[in-house]
Amino acid sequence: MRILVTGGTVFVSRAVAEWFVQRGDTVYVLNRDTRSQAEGVELIRADRHLLGEKLRQYCFDAVLDMTAYTAQDVSDLLDALGDFGQYVLLSSSAVYPETNPQPFREDQMLGANTFWGDYGSNKIGAESALLRRVPAAYILRPPYLCGAGNNLYREAFVFECAERGLPFCVPGDGSLPLQFCHIGDLCRLLEIIVTKRPQQHILNTGDPQTVSAADWVRICYAAAEMPCILRYLPREIPVRAYFPFRDYAYRLDVTAQTALLPELTPLEDSMREAYAWWQVHRETVVRKPYLDYLAQLDLR
What we know:
By secondary structure, the protein is an alpha/beta fold. Helix content is 33%, strand content 18%.
C-alpha cells in the first residue's frame, strides 16, 4: 500500500510510520524535516498549512492523519490532497464532555470538556471538518497513549524519580483512575482499519480497564526495578503542578475496538518497553518542573 502519515518523527506518528514500513508498505511522511526521520520512509518536506501542489502528484491508499488538532489542520490537508482511499484521523477522548454518562461511548454527544479546554474543542472541530468532506473517514479516540517513544514527561518522570530513589507524590488517596492505550495496539488497530475496513468508523481505543494512579506509579517503578514509596498529597495542592495527568476520572467504552483487537498489551509490558526506550533517549523527553515545585513544599 501507499500510505501517507502526517508527522512521522515523534512518538505516535513515528511509531505508525515505522509500523507500516516494517509491514512492507511504501510510507510517505509529511513534516518540515526539523527532526530525524524514521528509517525507510519517503519524506515530503512541507508545512501542512503551506502545501500548494506538493501532494497532487501522489495517489495514497490511506492517509493516516496523526497530527491534526484543529479544523484548519484537516481542511488544509484535504485541500492539498490528490487522490486517496481511506482517511484515518487520530482524535482524542477529550471530545466527550465530562457530564456524559460513563464509560463514554462513541455514539454519545460531543461537547466542551472543562478539564481539557480548547484541546478537546479543537479536536471536535477537526472531526467535524473531516466528516463533512469525507463521511466514510475513520476516527480514533484514545485515552492517554503510552509505550516506547513517548517524549512526554509522564512515565519518564516516574522513571527519573525511581532512579534517584525518590518517593513519588500522587493526588489524594492515589485512587484516581487512569486509562491507557499502548502505542503498539494503536498501530495494530490502524493496520486492521486500512486492510479490513471495519463497519464501525468511529472507535474509542485503549485498555478496557483503568488503573489507579498509585498502581500506575508502582508499575513504572517495577519497570525500573526500583522499590516504590508513595506520598499522598491533599488535592488542595494543584495536581498538575507535580503530577503528569489531569485530576479527571473518566473511562472509555472500547467494546467495538476489542471486537477487532481482542488481545491487548499489558500495561506492565508497555512500561518495561517505555523504560528501555527512555534509558537511551532521555534527551528527547520534554521535561516539566515537577520536582522543582515539590521542592518548594513542606512535605515533612
